[in-house]
Design brief:
The chain is mainly beta. It has a domain at 29-108. 11% of the residues lie in helices and 41% in strands. It is built from two helices and six strands, in the order αββββββα. Strands 1-2-3-4-5-6 form a six-stranded antiparallel sheet, with helices on one face. A hairpin with a 2-residue loop joins strand 5 (80-87) and strand 6 (90-97).
Length: 117
Amino acid sequence: MKSYHPETPIPFDVDWHHQFGNKLAVFPRNLCFRNEVLQLDYWPDLTTFTEDYETSLLMYYPPAASRFSICVIYRKLSGTWDVVKYCDDIVLQRATGQTFESAMQNIVTQGLTWGEA
């Protein structure tokens, strides 16, 4: 049983960057995972930002070298979200949502996986 209340990640501010602010405003500034005693933050790698007509995608990584990563995908046409946590190329956790808040809450409540922190 988890003994904490996960916090919904906060999206980037529109004015965070003069050129990419509007595009990044749909993504979380970071993702924080916890269990009873451990915490691990994932931070965006802005060099991984990609978008096309249908989707925008951004990868997140822990601050230290790790086999773990998170892919956040915003589906523009439907306005829905997919968040996928990987260990190398293996999917460990997946969350979807109709809103930013629901997708982010769905992924962070899953907490840390074995060996992640």
